[in-house]
User: Fold these one by one.
Assistant:
Number 1:
Amino acid sequence: MFSARSLFQEILDNDDSFRLFCSIAASGESQGGWENARIAALVPASERDLAPRITRHGADEDKHGRIFNALMKKRGLKPVDVPADTDYTMLLERQGIGLAHEKLKSDEPLTVRDIVTYLAHSRVTEQRASEEMELLRKYFGDHPDLGRAVRMISKDEDNHLAYCHEELLRFAAAGHGRLIQRTLRECALAEIRVYRDVSLAVMSHMGRVLDWPRPKAAVLAAGIRAVYAYERAVGWRRMVSLRMPERRDALGGPATRSPEFA
């Protein structure tokens, strides 16, 4: 039988699967960096005080993309094209979640409603990112090659989640509570579907790279579908609650520099 730790270790030990994993991660982080940079540039005048935090969020995402690319470079690997069915960010956009790229590519200022939508979308996706990095930190936080990167990214994702909670509570106090709860629920239900589909796609690609036997692939796919069934029933609720974080102003100040891995 296999565990999450052994599965991650198998992906880590093989150059082709490691390259695919890092390429998918780097692409998603870089896309998030671009989105946040555009949102910061288009923040409405009434919310200009929020722009530096959005900029910091984007800078962190860019840094994470550079870290994943540096991890590949250290092993003498080059990024590969990301399969379309593993592109979490773009698949969410196609579901109408978050702010459309067409809107972000224009020079039209965003509205307060747009900013609430952005924060609600981020609150849901950063919950996922924080949980995934916590799992990697548990298994590989002390790894000689990956540990430093995993710890740094995990801390950043926790800060991003704290920032989303704090800002959404501020907007709720300003009278946007119903919009926030409705948007959070829509985002959460769409995200768990996309996460299921992307997880199945990633495992399918990994299975071909690592030549997994059919029974192993079937068990992994069943596990992914079981997680989705739980999240569809009750698990999605953890993504829509709001509480004031212990660390306030988590994205105040400049982004930390990307460490050298290569």
Number 2:
Amino acid sequence: MVAGLLGAFAAAVCYGVASILQAVAARRIHSAEGLDPRLLIRLFRSWPYLLGIGLDGFAFLLSIAALRSLPLFVVQSIVASFLAITAVLGAIFLHMPLRRSDWIALLVVIAGLVLVGLSAAEDRTVSVSDAESWGVLAAAVALGVLAVPVGRINGAPGAAALGAIAGLAFGTVAVAARVLPGSVRLDTLFSELGTLLTDPSTYALILAGGVALLTYSTALQRGSVTQATAPLVIGETVAPALVGVLMLGDRPRPGWGWVAALGFFLAVAGALSLSRHGDLAQTELQHTP
């Protein structure tokens, strides 16, 4: 359990650094019309974006490892704290000073994470039916289909809508990782590869990850980082947490339910408040090396 908590916190740090790099890269690229996959091709020519994607990939592996031993609500609330990392790094490297409200939000996030960590119980490997595994894949497909018309919405409404889809897609990734069959460890990965390739949740994870990446990158071009990230935080934390509690049997330590609920609320509320700090000025992004 301790290793899972450390992995989740390390994932949050990586996601925080990556979000700064990706926001810088996305604002340097010409805006895409609609939901254009070619946007990713252009972004992959930018070294900040490539570095950010590399950190995202590493963070993703860390979060998968954490999800194998911890409930969804614990991992997702910790991962949501990447906005606190983003705010601190933005203040240091992008000259975005933290206001008093930002410092309060940081303290709220920290308090929430402490409560969530204290309430965490080591979780068992979940056993899901074929219908539930196919349901996760169906959710990923539905988000991909929904993203096409939503991608035609411009301005702040488009940024918020695409950010929400990205959040739900990231949440689907988390759920898919939670229900993957087997232990999914490096030492057993090849022996269990056949099982993974025949499980719908594997393809849900891949598809939802692609949808999340494209919709969030597009959202960053349509509006401010806040407009894109605030709905993302809600989608990637609340939705999978509810799935974990209602469908997968995720539970905190006995008698610690109210502590877990309070910690989750504080962590998400603080993260949403910190998302306002993410409004990177265009001039800052243009002059960032």
